[in-house]
């Protein structure tokens, strides 16, 4: 019989990191979500060498107080929920209190923040090796910057799974595009190896939003898309769906958000596929950017650590609502109701 030991905090964090920190793109998702939860209106992301050497996310959100800075790096420490009731109606993107602890266990992390109440800011550093964070004064305007260097420097087995700089950068870009589509009111920018690659300004009006969608999904998508906005029985579906003529050979232009969170869900995909069934040739995939909004109490987001999956309280109702709304939207634009030509 082997003796039972309690895992050291560092090892426990490294194991937990396996669930959420797969590659630079997943670090960026967690950091940007934190910035959004902090009410930031401008988020600037910077990477070097595909994010393996450096990831920096800077925001102008509410910041973290000096006392809370070391806590932010410890596991199960969150400012977002206190009890189970909060979890059942969670509106923030984060709530597990694991991301920063996980990231700092597999990289060199520096967190600098200013709540705007003090003149300058404070920073903590954690370097994988120990969980003791060092606190020091640091100049920073209101908001937070997180710098993550040398991802997986202390976990070589994980590092081996990283692809080329180019591939990792591609994933970073995809993740940020997905996040930028989730919040139009925020401005985002992305810098790669010192060069600004994307800059999306805050978009409040529909034409401004359509401009951002066109920038991210390509102008052809927007030219071939119809705007939908349907509100019924506590469910709202809005966004853009491409006409069947703009179908794709791959399911690569599909963005679906539930209460501002990007998700992949079988029930949702099924409802959308059904709505397109009569109008899309076999083997073709629809393109869409869609937002479903519903009472947070009617959807469980705590199904998986990455929160890509959700569970609806009344899945039948959601399925029917999606199917009917999209079926109607597609039928409305083609009065003849015969399948249109495919390329
Ligand atoms: P979670 O997001 O699940 O709460 P994290 O480990 O991602 O867990 O973050 C821990 C805590 O650190 C958050 O609850 C929040 O209080 C604080 N925090 C992290 N990033 C930011 C940020 N950019 N701005 C303000 N507070 C932040
Ligand atoms: Mg978080």
Automatic annotation (TrEMBL):
| The keyword DNA repair is assigned to this record | yes
**UniProt domain DNA mismatch repair protein S5: residue ranges:** 213-331
Per the database entry, which stretches of residues form a coiled coil?
Answer: none
Query: An example Gene Ontology cellular component term from the record?
Result: mismatch repair complex
Question: Is Ligase one of the keywords?
Answer: no
Query: What is the superkingdom listed in this entry's lineage?
Result: Bacteria
GO terms in the biological process aspect are:
mismatch repair
Q: Which UniProt keywords apply?
A: DNA damage, DNA repair
GO MF terms listed in the record are: ATP binding; ATP hydrolysis activity; ATP-dependent DNA damage sensor activity; mismatched DNA binding
Q: What is the role of this chain?
A: This protein is involved in the repair of mismatches in DNA. It is required for dam-dependent methyl-directed DNA mismatch repair. May act as a 'molecular matchmaker', a protein that promotes the formation of a stable complex between two or more DNA-binding proteins in an ATP-dependent manner without itself being part of a final effector complex.
The family this protein is said to belong to: Belongs to the DNA mismatch repair MutL/HexB family.
State the protein's name.
Answer: DNA mismatch repair protein MutL
> What is the source species?
Teredinibacter turnerae (strain ATCC 39867 / T7901)
Name the gene that codes for it.
Answer: mutL
- Counting on the full-length protein, the chain here runs from 1 to 343 of 613
């Amino acid at each position: 019989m082997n003796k039972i030991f309690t895992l050291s905090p560092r090892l426990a964090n490294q194991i937990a990191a396996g669930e959420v920190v797969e590659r630079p793109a997943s670090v960026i998702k967690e950091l940007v979500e934190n910035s959004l939860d902090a009410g930031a209106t401008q988020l600037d992301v910077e990477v070097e060498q595909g994010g393996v050497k450096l990831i920096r996310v800077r925001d102008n959100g509410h910041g973290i107080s000096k006392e809370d800075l070391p806590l932010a790096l410890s596991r199960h420490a969150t400012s977002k929920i206190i009890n189970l009731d909060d979890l059942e109606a969670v509106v923030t993107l984060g709530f597990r209190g694991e991301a920063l602890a996980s990231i700092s266990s597999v990289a060199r992390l520096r967190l600098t923040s200013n709540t705007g109440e003090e003149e300058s800011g404070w920073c903590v550093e954690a370097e994988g090796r120990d969980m003791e964070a060092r606190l020091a004064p640091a100049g920073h305007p209101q908001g937070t910057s997180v710098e993550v260097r040398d991802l997986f420097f202390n976990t070589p087995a994980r590092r081996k799974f990283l692809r080329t700089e180019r591939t990792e950068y591609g994933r970073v870009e995809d993740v940020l595009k997905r996040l930028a589509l989730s919040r139009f009111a925020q401005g985002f920018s992305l810098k790669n190896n010192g060069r600004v690659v994307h800059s999306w300004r805050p978009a409040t009006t529909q034409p401004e939003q359509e401009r951002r969608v066109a920038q991210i999904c390509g102008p052809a998508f927007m030219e071939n898309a119809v705007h939908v906005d349907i509100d019924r029985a506590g469910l709202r579906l809005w966004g853009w769906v491409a006409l069947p003529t703009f179908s794709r050979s791959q399911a690569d232009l599909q963005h679906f958000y539930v209460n501002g969170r990007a998700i992949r869900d079988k029930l949702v995909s099924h409802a959308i596929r059904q709505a397109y069934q009569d109008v899309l040739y076999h083997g073709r995939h629809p393109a869409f950017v869609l937002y479903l909004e519903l009472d947070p109490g009617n959807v469980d987001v705590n199904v998986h650590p990455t929160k890509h999956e959700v569970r609806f309280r009344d899945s039948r109702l959601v399925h029917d609502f999606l199917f009917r709304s999209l079926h109607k939207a597609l039928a409305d634009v083609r009065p003849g109701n015969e399948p249109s030509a495919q390329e």
